[in-house]
C-alpha cells in the first residue's frame, strides 16, 4: 500500500494493488461520505454522496484502487472538498500499464462529477491522465446523477482500446537526444511559463530508474511526467540559489499537468509520423 500526506494543499492519498475498502476510503477521502451538501449550494443542487455512486459502480464491476482528497485551510470545508478516486473494472491489473477511470467530485461547488480516462504505470507507480481528445465526461449536480455517472463510466471504458493504440504508437517512435531535450523544454515551458525554470530540460529527461533506459517516446514522456509530478530535482532559482523542485500535490494541478504532458507527447507523435 502507498499512502502519502503533506501539510497544506496536498491531498491525503492511498493506493493499493487490491480494491480499497470503505474503511480505507473514509480515512483519506471523508468528503466522499458527506451526508449533506455544503451550505453554499442552492436548492437546485442534487446531492448524492460519492460513496453512494461508488457502491453503484461496484455493482457494475468497477473497484477503487486509489483515492485522494484536497486539504483545505477551512476545516468546515473538509467534508465537502474535492476528491479523486481511480477505478478499474475486472481483473486488469496484471499488465505493465493498467487502464483506470479517474472520478472527480466535490460537494462544495468546486467540481461536478467528472470522469477521465487514465493509465497507471505499475513499474514506477505513475498515475497518468489522458488528454481530452479521448473524452472527458462531466455530470452536473442535477437530475438522475446515478444513471449518468454509470453511463459515463462505460463511455470512458469504451475509449481504452484507443488509448492502448496511442500508447503502442508512442512506444514505436524513437527519439534522439535533441528530440528528448525538446520534449523536456516543452514540458518546462508549460509548467513555468515565462518564469525561469529552476531545472534544465537535460535534468528532467534523466531517468530515475534502470527500467527507463529506453529512448522511445512513451518512455521519454513517462520520465518527464515522473520528474515534474514527483519533484525532487535539484536546481537553482532565478537568483542563483540552490533549490529542489516540489512535487505536484494538488488534485487540479495533477490533472492539468498530466493532461498537458500527454497532449505534448501526442504532438510529438504526429510530428514523427
The low-pLDDT segments are: 1-11
Percent in strands? 15-25%
Q: Report the mean per-residue pLDDT as an integer.
A: 84
How would you spell out the order of helices and strands? Answer: EEHHEEEEEEHHHHHEEH
Question: Can you put this structure into words, describing what you see?
Answer:
The chain folds into two domains: 2-167, no CATH class; 173-272, no CATH class. It has eight helices and ten strands. The relative contact order is 0.12. It has 273 residues and is of the alpha+beta class. A hairpin with a 7-residue loop joins strand 5 and strand 6 (113-121). The termini are far apart. It has helices at 22-28, 50-59, 145-157, 160-172, 177-192, 201-204, 217-230, 251-272, and strands at residues 2-4, 12-15, 62-69, 83-89, 97-105, 113-121, 126-129, 137-139, 234-236, 242-244. Helix 7 (217-230) packs antiparallel against helix 8.
